[in-house]
Design goal:
Helix 2 (16-26) packs parallel to helix 3 and helix 4 runs parallel beside helix 5. It is built from eleven helices and 23 strands. It has helices at residues 5-11, 16-26, 84-98, 139-153, 220-231, 234-239, 258-266, 271-275, 336-342, 375-380, 431-436, and strands at 33-49, 52-70, 73-79, 157-175, 180-198, 201-211, 246-252, 296-299, 320-325, 328-329, 350-351, 360-361, 365-368, 384-396, 402-414, 417-422, 425-430, 438-441, 446-448, 453-456, 458-461, 463-466, 469-477. The strands form five sheets. The chain has a six-stranded antiparallel beta sheet. It has a six-stranded mixed beta sheet with strand order 10-9-8-13-22-19. Helix content is 21%, strand content 39%. The longest helix is centred in the N-terminal third of the chain and has 15 residues, at 84-98.
């Protein structure tokens, strides 16, 4: 949602001339660049446990972050008040951190300018019903209905925890280039955690949906979709066994398996890791890193998606960024700082958790484009291996590229068929090697719209996806 400029100036009780004076204050110590990030976020949540409201809350986060860049130094300070004296003090504090720096040019922000006005017609955050003014009393019956739907679909359900959370952020940005950006960013998330019992055994499952949209998110169709997903595959989970381990082909199912792509490969494409020589891909730009036909992107343009951005927290327009094209590494994910270092345009990946943090390169919606095969043909091509479609508790070493992920659900593949359900399995591998070992990509790309949140010094909402993919040789930790 994009309101007129006056709305944001009034929200933060500032005038345009105040913004210019504040950036000038930040540059008095000799800085190269100064930017301002104003935020006014309203948070709401309500949690239903076994049919009763267990907790609920509402709070507002409000303030401004001020960043000054000079040479190799970054000065950052914030204020939880936007009164003139508090903001000037924050600007002086940020400037003081960079005082006496030696200007090298490498650390300055990108010279690419983005003067265009925010365009409501191109807004990627639909919000027909503002969470801040929505009737909260209507939300509780929706949670109760979700619980009832889940319990009705499986008699083994013994506990349901349903949670609805929402936030709306008014954002205003201004910098010493005199660029101004503003928008209103909604987010709604619905989560159900379910406990099942059968013959003394317990299984748990969580399902979620999260979109950048208003309270119109809550529909009967969404409740039915979540309820069906909550009970789907529970028979297999109770029947699952731990398989024998070893190196074998692994077929990753479309959708949520994209979290492995995000963790094991996506982080290694973030430009700050590469600029500092910490990524395994630091010297691979322009090189073939996987077979032809494979394209991996990070996309900030999907309307309503959890990772969508009208513009990033550097004020750079969101865009569709191709990181790997036809098997060749073609771009890192850049904020303004790394773009300046590499002499390229920013990719709209400068993101921050809140006004209390400076922006750094972060993913948005990371996925692999569809290939030309089919999921059925890929599975049929495997004589002995494993199929996995949901991961959890992943760990990655950015420098080496090594990763391990816990498999929440999957199947053995025997003679081209899915056979025994499996559990208690770890998938172990190396990101660059796993990319090189991709043998086939199906035509069934699916973006998973769960409540994915990425932690890298700060937490930001992201999305991920993948088509069905065959990785030729990964280590499966089993018996």
């Amino acid at each position: 949602m994009i309101n007129d400029k006056r709305y944001y100036l009034d929200t933060f009780r500032v005038k345009e001339e105040d913004l210019a004076a504040l950036t000038a204050e930040g540059l008095k110590g000799g800085g190269d660049y100064c930017d301002l990030f104003f935020e006014n976020t309203s948070y709401r949540d309500i949690l239903l446990r076994d049919g009763e409201v267990s907790s609920g809350g509402f709070h507002i986060d409000y303030g401004v972050g001020i960043r000054v860049l000079c040479g190799e130094k970054t000065g950052y300070a914030y204020s939880e008040s936007t009164d003139p004296a508090s903001m000037r003090a924050a600007a002086r504090a940020a400037a003081a951190i960079t005082a006496g720096c030696a200007v090298s040019g490498d650390r300055r922000t990108s010279d690419h300018r983005h003067f265009g006005r925010p365009n409501p017609a191109a807004d990627r955050y639909p919000m027909r019903e503002d969470w801040r003014t929505a009737d909260v009393s209507a939300h509780l019956p929706m949670l109760q209905k979700l619980e009832a739907l889940i319990r009705a679909k499986d008699p083994r359900v013994v506990k349901v925890i349903a949670m609805l959370s929402s936030q709306v952020s008014d954002i205003l940005m201004f910098n010493s280039f005199e660029e101004m950006k503003y928008d209103t960013r909604p987010m709604g998330s619905l989560v159900a955690s379910v406990v099942f019992t059968q013959n003394g055994s317990i299984e748990t499952k969580s399902v979620s949906r999260s979109f950048r949209m208003g309270a119109e998110l809550l529909t009967d169709a969404l409740l039915e979709e979540l309820a069906c997903q909550a009970v789907e595959g529970i028979d297999e989970r109770f029947a699952a066994r731990r398989p024998k381990g070893g190196k074998m082909p692994v077929v990753m199912g479309a959708g949520a398996s994209g979290i492995l792509l995000h963790e094991a490969m996506g982080h290694a494409f973030e430009a700050d890791f590469n600029r500092k020589g910490q990524s395994i891909f630091s010297d691979k730009m322009g090189s073939r890193i996987c077979r032809k036909g494979i394209t991996i992107v990070d996309d900030g343009t999907i309307r309503g998606n959890r990772g969508a951005v009208n513009f990033d927290d550097d004020g750079v327009p969101g865009q569709y960024t191709v990181m790997v094209e036809d098997g060749v590494l073609t771009s890192y994910l850049h904020d303004r700082i790394s773009a300046k270092y590499y002499g390229v345009a920013p990719t709209g990946n400068g993101r921050r958790e809140s006004f209390r943090y400076n922006p750094i390169p972060r993913m948005r919606a990371t996925y692999m484009e569809s290939g030309e095969g089919t999921a059925e043909a890929i599975i049929a091509s495997v004589k002995k291996g494993i199929f996995v479609d949901q991961f959890a508790n992943g760990q990655v070493k950015i420098g080496e590229g090594d990763f391990t992920f816990y498999v929440k659900s999957g199947f053995l593949i025997e003679d081209g068929r899915l056979t025994m359900p499996v559990k208690d399995v770890n998938i172990i591998g190396n990101g660059p090697q796993a990319l090189a070992d991709i043998e086939a990509v199906a035509d069934d790309l699916k973006i998973d719209n769960g409540t994915w949140t990425c932690g890298k010094e700060q937490s930001v909402p992201v999305s991920c996806g993948i088509p069905t993919v065959l990785v030729n040789n990964l280590t499966v930790g089993g018996e």
